[in-house]
Amino acid sequence: MLASRMLGERKSERQVLGYVPSLRREGPLTMQDLRRFEQDRYILQVRQDIIDEQQQNAQGLPSDKWKSIEVEAFQVNRTKKAVQKDSELEKPLTETENALKFGLFCMTLMYFRGLFLLKKQKTVWSVSAAKRSAEPPKSAERLRMDKEKRNAELRTRKAAFYDEKARIGQARKQKFHEQKLAAYRKRLVDENRK
């Protein structure tokens, strides 16, 4: 008996309200403590139920929800195929697959052929093509003369531009020279008056 008291164990004098050191060290448990523990247990259970429900209703990535389905499908895929070799489904499925491939090829071919024909008809029916065909093609001599004419006009415009710049620069230089001369005259007049 004495050895058990050394280890912290003790027989309870009360059957219902025993001394439980891990729950209440001050003394034996009362009915109020038991009710409080019961209520705490109930609150924890309700919280756990809410957490479980939130985890079930949680919106996550689709891959999280589909992972179990995908894993199961891969396991089935490893063990057996959807269509066994030499089964009655193999031939119709192969024919269907080949027909689909050929259909996709034909649709792609028609798409690009349609684009080509559309571009071709666009150039045929455009107004600019009609204007070009109405004018006779220019000879090499006429093209050279037109180029020389454009170059001459360009040179004339450039010459006028640079002449204008030179005129502005000359006017600025003349104005500066006149201001300098006026300042020099004023200084001479001021010196002579003294």
TrEMBL record:
InterPro entries xrefs: MAP7_domain-containing
Keyword annotations: Coiled coil
Superkingdom: Eukaryota
PANTHER family membership: MICROTUBULE-ASSOCIATED PROTEIN, RETICULOCYTE-BINDING PROTEIN HOMOLOG 2A
Protein name (database record): Uncharacterized protein
Organism: Phytophthora nicotianae P10297
Taxonomic placement: Eukaryota, Sar, Stramenopiles, Oomycota, Peronosporomycetes
